[in-house]
Each structure stands twice: as structure tokens, then as C-alpha cells.
Amino acid sequence: MLPHHAKSGNSNPHWVTHGARVVFVDDELSHSKFHCLGRIFMAGLDKHTVEVGELFSPRPVSRVVNAGLRRPDSRKSIPRPDGLLLLDKNENTDPELKAWLDRVQTRISAVSLSTYPDLGPLYSELSNWLGIPVDQLVLTTGSDGAIQRTFEMFVEPNDAVLLTQPTFAMYQVYANSFGARVHCLEYERTESAPKLDLNRILTAIEELHPRLFCLPNPDSPTGNVLSLTDLDQVIRACGSAGTVLLIDEAYHPFTPITAIPFVASNPHVLIARTFSKAWGLAGLRTGYLVGHPETIEWFHRTRPMYEIGEYANAFLSVAIREHAEMTASVERLTAGKIFFAESMTSLGFEMLASGGNFQHVAFGDSASRIHSALRPFALYRADSDFDCLRGFSRFSSTTRDLFSPIVNVISDCGG
């Protein structure tokens, strides 16, 4: 049945057929959307017609309709093979840490799966562990969520955003999603590691006055680290330029340098952290932002109903109280990283310095043979698409015991 519309004034609203479609016509109908039989229709421009029988196909906001906005289709993702040592995504593969995480799980009640979280105690635990006031913290869905929320908070279409290149892929995705004008600082290839000259950074900030500068420290995949002295200069330059500075510390404490002490006196500085790397909790998708209380307050005003779920809340509450387990794991992984680097160097392979839980090795003429030999044992990044890392394979850090068979296979290939 067609909906009834009362006549108004001299107009004569009526239904007519137009080909295979039924059309409602009203000369005085306002230019607006309205509901009809549970469907949304658009008022036309000529005689204000509304077509029935064709679904309205919404078009997203203009910043989303962006040819550069592309993401891999997670609906078509393929699970990684079982039985391989996973050294391709910078996850924590420390067996002792996994054993501790298993024990933590047994202490989490199933009630946490059916209840909403009360996050106040977790905020207090995190505040005490970090040694900062709780009003400098907001929980997020991993450092990825912290990055996205920073873009939501500060970036409007056509704002200039400064990124390093190469870096974490989601920076470019969010810059495109929010319609920003992206400017990239390219890493230069050197003998020791990819480098980004401090003067180039400071000059770009001074000349561009970007709305946002995203600076991972250490960066990934390069492993580049800025010292506290360099960070201080970058922070000052961003303050003078009116630039929000997001420092991504996803790999803390593999590199112990942190900019958290700067935030109390610099409202334009934000620090993103995650529980995915050192803590071995990538599956929980949890992290946090640290910032000046006035800045963090804006994030709390616009946060979702709950920042994280109750299971993550319960798990992290235990994990933070027992943070010594994480610290011990970082020490084991660092020892494994040193062992792997020394082994590769002794075999004559070139290594690059890295501040993250990963490292790069160039197998040179032996690459094809080594990759074939390692295929049954481990997943890792065999090569890079970026000029500053081309020819280097990237291995996530693991323990010495787990690295030893990998080193033996490489050695047997005649390194």
C-alpha cells in the first residue's frame, strides 16, 4: 500500500507511474530526505519527485572517497601456517612469557566475558606503574587506536600532516581517510642503518607548519631511534610551529628512551603506547595515550562508551601488577637479538642497527639458498619494497634458544 499524504495549500501531491517505477510528485515538497515504507528516498530537483522501489545508495563524506585510500581485505586474509616460528610481525614469541600469560588466563573469571568494564582501577594501576598522574592517560584499542583517535581529534581536510617514510602503514591510511595533505620525510640509506637527519626534520616543521607530525621512536620498519636531546629539539620546533606531535613508542621498552617526561609541560605532545609488543598481548588490541591533562581531557570527552572490554581490563590489571614478567621477557628477547646479530656478523652478513624488537640482515648472493632452507622453519620478511632497506631480510626478535636452529640452518647454507 502506498503511504497517504495530506494535501496542503494549492499543491496536488499524487502518485504516478514512470516506466517500471512508481513516483510521488509534490510541487511544494522540501528538498529533504524522508522515510517511506521503511526505505529512505531522496527528493528530486525538478518537481520534487521521490522514486519508490529503488534503494538509496549513500555516498560517504568526500574525504573518504579518495583514490589513495586502500586497505587489504581482511575478509580474504589467510591464516599463517601452523608449526612455523613466527618472526614476521614483530610479535613476542618468548615461551616463558607465553607460559606466564597462560597462568594469568586461568585467573580471569568467565564473568569478564559477559560484563561491561569498570576501568577506574586499571587506570590507577597504569598510572602507578608509569609514575604519572591518571589525568594524563586514556586507554585505546592498541597504539593503532591511539593514532586514529589523534587524527580524529586534530586533523581536518587539507591539513598538512608530516610523516616519515617508510613507517607504520596506518599513518598513511589515516592521513588519507581524513583528507590530509601528506608530506613525507624519506629515510636515507647508510652503511649502519637508514637515517633521517635531524636538520631535515626541523626544517620541514618550520617550513610546513603541519597540523600533525607522526614520529615513531623507534620507527618501523627502519628501527631508527632519536635521542632525548633530538626529541627535545623536535618538541620545541613543533610547539613554535603550532604542530601536534604524536610520538609512537610501540617498541618501548626494547628501546628505553621515552618522551613521557615532556608531556606535562608540552600540551602539543602525545605519546602512543601498546601492550602488543613487549607484553605479548597483540590479541587483546589494547594500548594508551599519554599527554598533558588538558589535551587528554578532549579524548575522554569523545571516547567510546568503553575504551576496552572487561576481559582486557581484567587481564591487564593482573599483567601490570606483575610487570616484572614483561621486563624479564624483554631481556631474554634482547639477548636473543644480540646472539642473532653476532652470529650473522660472524658468518659475514651485513646487519643494520635497530631499536625495535626486530633486525635486518643482508644475505647477499646466498639469499635465495637461505630463504629456501628456512622456509620449513620460520616466517619472516625476506626482502623490503623500500630503497633504504632493499636487499635486507627482517627477523623479529626471539629468544636465543629459538634463534639457534635458525642460525644453524643459515650457517649450513654456507654463509
Characteristic key phrases:
single chain; 415 residues; alpha/beta; Aspartate Aminotransferase, domain 2; Aspartate Aminotransferase, domain 1; 3 domains; seven-stranded mixed β-sheet; three-stranded antiparallel β-sheet; 18% strand; globular; disordered N terminus
Task: Please describe the topology of this protein.
Layout: E1 14-18, E2 21-25, E3 33-36, E4 39-42, E5 50-52, E6 85-86, H1 95-106, H2 120-130, E7 137-140, H3 142-154, E8 160-165, H4 170-177, E9 181-186, H5 198-208, E10 212-216, H6 228-241, E11 244-248, H7 260-263, E12 269-274, E13 287-291, H8 293-301, H9 310-321, H10 324-346, E14 350-352, E15 358-362, H11 367-374, E16 378-379, E17 393-396, H12 400-412
Parallel strand pairs: 6-16, 8-9, 8-10, 10-11, 11-12
Antiparallel strand pairs: 1-2, 2-5, 3-4, 7-13, 12-13, 14-15, 15-17
Helix pairs in contact: 2-9, 3-4, 5-6, 10-12
Average pLDDT score: 90
Which strand order does the major sheet show?
7-13-12-11-10-8-9
Quick one: overall form?
A: globular
Distance between the termini: 79 Å
Give the SSE order as H and E letters: EEEEEEHHEHEHEHEHEHEEHHHEEHEEH
Regions with pLDDT < 50 over 5+ consecutive residues? 1-9, 29-48
Task: Tell me what portion of residues adopts beta-strand conformation.
Answer: 15-25%
CATH topology of the largest domain: Aspartate Aminotransferase, domain 2
**Roughly what percent helix?**
25-40%
Using the 3D structure, state the CATH architecture of the largest domain.
Answer: 3-Layer(aba) Sandwich
Query: What is the number of strand segments?
Result: 17
Number of helices: 12
Task: Tell me the CATH superfamily of the largest domain.
Answer: Type I PLP-dependent aspartate aminotransferase-like (Major domain)
Biggest sheet descriptor: 7 strands, mixed
Secondary-structure-derived class: alpha/beta
Look at the structure and give the CATH class of the largest domain.
Alpha Beta
The tally of domains stands at 3
Rg, please?
A: 27 Å
